[in-house]
């Protein structure tokens, strides 16, 4: 049995017929072809699949696509505006906050949500805020720096 | 336009794609008509396959085909070990098990369907009847009489009697004599636990076969596209020139994508059978079972020396767990990359090392970041601390006393190898300075008075990198040369495309290699394209592992660039009508000496090479060069890492409060990238020291089988790392580099454990096995307290009596 769902993804309206069991992460990647959202685990542990659902950071593998019916979703592909990177993207680049890049889309989205909630996070708050996102390459050192730089950029802009 | 040199922290050129979601990893590849493959895996650690019933599964929605091991036995062949030690037992390793499964996760059947969910559904419906057999998971017990045998039959018949894959040893000097003469001999049993690499991108393969041409193209998440093509051809008989292997963006490897895997062979062959594109993507829990693990040594170690703090010898006997089959480099890791490192940075004349490699009913074990060297460094650095404690001296003083003095070129050590260059005290001094050791000692004393557990640990490590001189490697068992080549192609407009056989997965080669090109040709980095990870583009390459890419591949690139410049200079001289020696090349221009306005730019010359209307006699048109670089020696990065930990006595929780890492990786191309790799390496080393551990039940079930059960370190575990470098160039390659991918992992584990033991030393604790989890530490503290209480009571009772 399939369900018709509608959602806005990166500002574009999409309609799809999906199985009830289809995960939101798979919908985004396999149906909408937005492959910037990655899948790094099957236990909702890694955070590589994080997207914004109605402005909140959500691990898209923890949701069924049908649960996102009517939602407004932002993926990493939707962050840049007018040919300019989102300040968080820019900060990850500037601070060398990525190596293999696999965790990066999830990290960036989580950071966007984190800074919205807490615009001036302490280092401890940043590290706690990234608890749900795993990175095996960077030791988090430059990711923390990137979050700090993005917070700084947000304040001065 | 960025003209960049060497030793510049240029922002990475690969990042714009990766921060905007435009990376292309294997799972992002979609081909028309593509099918999805799912594997049926054994839930038993050891069992005979009685029957594989696919009748229900094959009727399910979307199912296109199901293959069992028996169906494809011929086509799939057997996975070989790529490193062959003397007397190595090499049992068959069919990619799909045929009559027996030997670990939980061993693949039994391949299900192909039109969609991933349907393939998974059908895989679950395949009914396999097993006859379960007793299993063995412990490397030491596996080789004892009476243990269940994994590979039956004697060696000639492809068996491994007593589950022994090899016995290997290395000796230098005379350890027995040294131990006899020594004032002090310290013994310890040390377990280096099994780890799961956890590259954030699980593995995956897409294979596309074109029946009419016989061309098979495979995209796979690998560190070794060329070696994989070679091995695939050897295993399956598919012609090498009709196979193209592409490593697209690869989401981390850490050694775990350095082999030919069953799934690569299966997916390729199934695509060939069906004449349609096939994709296999590994799930994370599947990854924990099917992708190689690392470490897993049980070691009895001894260190000996004199009361004045001189260390005279080290000896160890190791039981190394290899898992159920030999993975590609499995025989290399616990032997050569381990045993020859036991001298460390010390004037240690007597070394004895015996290693037994054992088959067990567990996931195959192979290289994991550091690969052999972390195991060796852990033993040496842990035992140096034990020795210092036994002779009542400061561990830093003991290290300093025993260190090999600085040298610039070639130092032979007791294990028979020659270090390239080193200045070990310099790195130690720098670390001590950053740390302010005397101040720390004062703080520690004060903390102890307040009942706080504060500890410091050192690790003055050395590693073997830059794999490698081919002749040496092959005399030690390598199945392939380990050189690298490069092709530098200059286009008519003076832009460059360079091709390398190294294959990055996070190391930033696009940037580092561009920097090398820009620095040598004087063209902007933006004018350079770097092609890697494609067997159709580059003739051969060994891949990226063992901190070798810039050392060997970067050097090959450097050599080609010199050839290009030499030719261009010749043409410039010819066209400007002056002798060649009067032409200087700087900042991208060929300038006639003392006539600064007489010059030609690099792009001018490039164009002239292609116009070919006025070439010197005998010069061929075009501008490109190929070079092969085979180093004369390995490289030997070193350094000093220091960890400071605070332990919560109530909970046993260990907090890393400071981490100082000084590395000497020779010359550096991009300091920012090197720092980044050190951070990541340190995190993995700290992870091993404090939290990570793959756990098997006695019957071979992986209990830490998901990311919920295996502790991948999170951001909260770490402080900011304080890193610095000393620079001792390597004399073995033209760039003077040593390789920087593994330092942190190798250095960190012993530094952290030495710190934990230091924090508890006043309670009488002398060793703790990794990982030093809060439970383990808490129990140690309770045990130590109990001992003291008993001792006090004993002495009180004694007094009474
Ligand atoms: S894929 Fe969603 S948390 Fe790992
Ligand atoms: S950059 Fe590789 S996992 Fe984070």
The whole-number mean of residue pLDDT values of chain A reads 97
Per CATH, which architecture of the largest domain in chain A?
Roll
Query: What is the distance, rounded to the nearest whole angstrom, between the alpha carbons of the first and last residues of chain B?
Result: 88 Å
What sequence of helices (H) and strands (E) makes up the elements of chain A? EEHEEEHHHH
Note the beta-strand portion of chain B: 15-25%
Unreliable segments of 5+ consecutive residues of chain A: none
Give a quick account of the main beta sheet of chain A: strands, pairing sense, barrel closure.
Answer: 5 strands, mixed
Can you tell me about this structure?
The complex is a heterodimer of chains A (157) and B (801). With 157 residues, chain A is an alpha+beta fold. Chain A has 2 domains: 2-78, Ubiquitin-like (UB roll) (Roll); 87-156, [2Fe-2S]-binding domain (DNA polymerase, domain 1, Orthogonal Bundle). Chain A has 5 helices and 5 strands. Chain A has a 5-stranded mixed β-sheet with strand order 2-1-5-3-4, with helices on both faces. In chain A, strand 1 and strand 2 (12-19) form a beta hairpin. Chain A is globular and about 50 Å long. The N and C termini of chain A lie far apart (49 Å). Chain B is α+β, with helices and mostly antiparallel strands. In chain B, 30% of the residues lie in helices and 24% in strands. Chain B has 21 helices and 28 strands. In chain B, the strands form 7 sheets. A 7-stranded mixed β-sheet of chain B has the order 3-5-1-12-9-10-11, sandwiched between helices. In chain B, a hairpin with a 5-residue loop joins strand 19 (484-490) and strand 20 (496-500). The model of chain B has no long low-confidence stretch (mean pLDDT 95). The chains are: A alpha+beta (157), B alpha+beta (801). At the A-B interface, helix 1, helix 2, helix 3, helix 4 and helix 5 of A face helix 1 and helix 19 of B. One FE2/S2 (inorganic) cluster sits between chains A (98-104, 135-138) and B (200, 252, 506). One FE2/S2 (inorganic) cluster (FES) binds at residues 25, 39-41, 44-49, 59, 61 of chain A.
């Amino acid at each position: 049995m399939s369900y018709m769902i509608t959602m806005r993804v990166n500002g574009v309206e999409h309609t799809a017929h999906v199985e009830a069991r289809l995960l939101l992460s798979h919908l985004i990647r396999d149906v909408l072809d937005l492959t910037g959202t990655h899948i790094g685990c099957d236990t909702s542990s890694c955070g590589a699949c994080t997207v914004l659902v109605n402005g909140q950071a959500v691990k898209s593998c923890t949701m069924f696509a049908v649960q996102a019916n009517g939602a407004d979703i932002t993926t990493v592909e939707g962050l840049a505006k007018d040919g300019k990177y989102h300040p968080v993207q820019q900060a990850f680049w500037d601070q060398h906050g990525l190596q293999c890049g696999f965790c990066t889309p999830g990290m960036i989205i989580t950071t966007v949500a984190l800074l919205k909630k807490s615009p001036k996070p302490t280092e401890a708050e940043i590290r706690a805020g990234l608890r749900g996102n795993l990175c095996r390459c960077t030791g988090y050192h430059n990711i923390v720096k990137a979050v700090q730089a993005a917070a700084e950029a947000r304040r001065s802009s | 336009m960025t003209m960049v040199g060497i030793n510049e922290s240029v922002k990475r050129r690969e990042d714009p794609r990766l921060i905007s979601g435009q990376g292309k990893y294997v799972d992002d590849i979609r081909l028309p008509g593509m099918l999805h493959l799912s594997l049926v895996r054994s839930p038993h650690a050891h069992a005979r396959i009685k029957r594989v019933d696919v009748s229900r599964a094959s009727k399910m929605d979307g199912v296109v085909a199901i293959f069992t091991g028996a169906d494809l036995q011929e086509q799939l062949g057997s996975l070989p070990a790529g490193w062959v030690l003397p007397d190595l037992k090499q049992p068959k390793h069919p990619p799909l098990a045929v009559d027996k499964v030997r670990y939980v996760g061993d693949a039994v059947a391949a299900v192909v369907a039109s969609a991933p969910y349907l393939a998974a559904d059908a895989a679950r419906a395949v009914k396999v009847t097993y006859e379960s057999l007793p299993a063995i998971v412990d490397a030491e017990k596996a080789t004892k009489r009476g243990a269940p045998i994994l590979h039956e039959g004697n060696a000639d018949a492809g068996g491994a009697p007593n589950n022994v894959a090899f016995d290997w040893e290395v000796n230098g000097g005379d350890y027995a004599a040294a131990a006899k003469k020594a004032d002090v001999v310290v013994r310890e049993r040390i377990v280096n636990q099994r780890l799961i690499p956890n590259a954030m991108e699980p593995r995956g393969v897409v294979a596309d076969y074109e029946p009419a041409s016989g061309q098979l193209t495979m995209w796979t998440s690998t560190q070794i596209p060329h070696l994989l093509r070679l091995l695939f051809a050897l295993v399956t008989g598919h012609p090498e020139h009709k196979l193209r292997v592409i490593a697209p963006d690869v989401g981390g490897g850490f050694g775990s994508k350095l082999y030919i895997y069953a799934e690569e062979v299966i997916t390729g062959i199934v695509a060939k059978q069906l004449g349609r594109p096939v994709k296999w993507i590994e799930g994370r829990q599947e990854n924990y079972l099917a992708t190689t693990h690392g470490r897993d040594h049980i070691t009895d170690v001894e260190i000996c020396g004199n009361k004045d703090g001189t260390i005279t010898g080290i000896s160890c006997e190791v039981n190394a767990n290899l898992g159920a089959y030999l993975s590609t480099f499995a025989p290399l890791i616990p032997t050569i990359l381990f045993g020859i490192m036991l001298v460390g940075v010390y004037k240690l004349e007597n070394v004895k090392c015996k290693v037994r490699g054992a088959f067990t009913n567990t996931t195959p074990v192979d290289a994991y970041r550091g690969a052999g060297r972390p195991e060796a460094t852990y033993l040496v650095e842990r035992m140096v601390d034990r020795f210092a404690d036994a002779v009542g001296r400061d561990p830093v003083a003991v290290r300093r006393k025993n260190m090999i003095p600085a040298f610039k070129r070639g130092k032979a050590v007791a294990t028979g190898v020659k270090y390239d260059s080193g200045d070990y005290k310099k790195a130690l001094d720098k670390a001590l300075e950053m740390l302010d050791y005397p101040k720390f000692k004062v703080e520690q004393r004060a903390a102890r008075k307040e009942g706080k557990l504060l500890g410091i640990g050192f690790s003055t490590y050395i590693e073997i990198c830059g794999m490698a001189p081919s002749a040496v490697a092959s005399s030690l068992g390598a199945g392939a040369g380990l050189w690298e080549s490069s092709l530098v192609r200059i286009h008519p407009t003076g832009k460059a495309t360079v091709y390398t056989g190294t294959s990055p997965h996070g190391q930033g080669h696009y940037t580092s290699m561009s920097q090398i090109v820009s620095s040598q040709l004087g063209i902007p980095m933006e004018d350079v394209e770097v092609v890697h990870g494609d067997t159709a583009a580059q003739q051969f390459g060994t891949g990226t592992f063992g901190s070798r890419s810039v050392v060997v591949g970067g050097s090959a690139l450097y050599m080609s660039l010199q050839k290009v410049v030499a030719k261009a200079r010749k043409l410039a001289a010819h066209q400007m009508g002056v002798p060649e020696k009067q032409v200087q090349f700087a900042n991208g221009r060929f300038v006639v000496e003392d006539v600064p306005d007489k010059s030609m730019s690099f792009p001018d010359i490039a164009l002239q090479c292609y116009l070919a209307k006025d070439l010197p006699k005998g010069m061929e048109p075009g501008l490109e060069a190929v070079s092969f670089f085979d180093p004369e020696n390995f490289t030997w990065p070193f350094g000093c890492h220091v960890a400071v930990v605070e332990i919560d006595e109530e909970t046993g929780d260990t907090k890393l409060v400071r981490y100082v890492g000084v590395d000497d990786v020779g010359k550096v191309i991009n300091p920012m990238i090197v720092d980044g790799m050190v951070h990541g390496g340190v995190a993995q080393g700290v992870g091993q020291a404090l939290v990570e551990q793959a756990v098997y039940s006695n019957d071979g079930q992986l209990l830490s089988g998901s990311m919920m059960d295996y502790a991948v370190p999170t951001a909260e575990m770490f402080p900011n790392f304080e890193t610095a470098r000393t620079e001792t160039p390597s004399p073995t390659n033209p760039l003077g580099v040593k390789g920087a991918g593994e330092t942190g992992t190798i250095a960190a584990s012993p530094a952290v454990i030495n710190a934990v033991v230091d924090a508890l030393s006043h309670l009488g604790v002398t060793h703790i096995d990794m990982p030093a989890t809060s439970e383990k530490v808490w129990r140690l503290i309770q045990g130590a307290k109990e001992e003291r209480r008993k001792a006090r009571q004993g002495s009180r009772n004694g007094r009474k009596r």
